[in-house]
Every structure is written in C-alpha cells, then in structure tokens.
Amino acid sequence: MFLFGFLWYGKLMNGAHQEVPILWRTPADFGNHFSSLVFGHIVMALFLTLLCARFVPAGGAGPCAMLGLLVALVYAGADLITFAVQPLTTKILCGWIVGDLIQFTIAGAIIGALYKAAPANITFVKERPHA
Fold first, then answer.
1. 22: helix, strand or coil
2. Which tens digits make up the pLDDT trace of 68-82?
3. Is residue 119 a contact partner of residue 57, using CB atoms and an 8 Å limit?
4. In the chain, what are the helix, strand and coil shares in percent, each to the nearest 5?
C-alpha cells in the first residue's frame, strides 16, 4: 500500500497537488510527519487484512479484491466530504478516488491470495452461543 501511495499520490499526482500548494505541508514539515504517513498505511493494511479474514474466511484473490473495492468506496465518500470542505480541485478529487479504487482492490487481491484460513478445529475467539 505504501509503495502504491508513493507512486500514485507522491509522483503521478504531484502536479495536481502543486496546483493548490497552500493546502500541503512544505517538504521539510512533511519530513517531520513522515512517520504518521507510514503508520497510516500500516493501519489501513492491518484493518483491510482483518476485514478480509473476518468476512472472506475462505480467502481468495477475487472475493478479497471485491471487499477491497467496497472499502475503497467508503474512502471515496470521505474524499467527497473533504472536497466539500476544502478547496481541492476536481482533478485531485478524481485522482484520489481512482487511487483508492486501485489501491484497495489490488491490496485486497494480494491479501486474498496470501491469506490461508486457520483449520476448522482451531478457535481464536470463543463465540457466544446463539440464542
């Protein structure tokens, strides 16, 4: 996720971001907050993995890619809200939404391809009996 974010948002969309420089940190200030950027990617990857494990227990690239796509659509909603309250350009908004769709769909597919469900006889969380 981090590599995609670097390439898509940091390189490909750099020109669009420079159209409204007042909205972004200076390179020096960004360096002071780089750990937050890395931690944010770790959080997204962790929780997408947990969602795939919980809601696509059999794994598989296709079903997990679909879940990633659905998560990306949630992010698209947040992007639209940000667009409503900040003076972003339409180019940035569209780039963010397309980036979300690509990033989370690919990440979901990778997670699904790598994920192996635990054997049925192993229980990690005791489930309550259904009433």
1. helix
2. 999 999 999 999 999
3. no
4. 75, 0, 25
DSSP symbols for 57-88:
TT--HHHHHHHHHHHHHHHHHHHHHHHHHS--
Helix (H) or strand (E) holding 114: helix 90-114
Could you give the CA distance from residue 56 to residue 117 in angstroms, rounded to a whole number? 9
Specify the amino acid at residue 76. A
Q: How many CB atoms lie within 10 A of CB 80?
A: 12
Domain locations in the chain?
Answer: 2-114
Residues 88, 20 contacting (CB under 8 angstroms) = yes
Taking the whole predicted model, whether its pTM rises above 0.90 is answered as no
For the chain, the C-alpha Rg in angstroms (whole number) is: 18
Residue 16 has a CB neighbour count (10 Å cut-off) of 18
**93 with 79: CB under 8 angstroms?**
yes
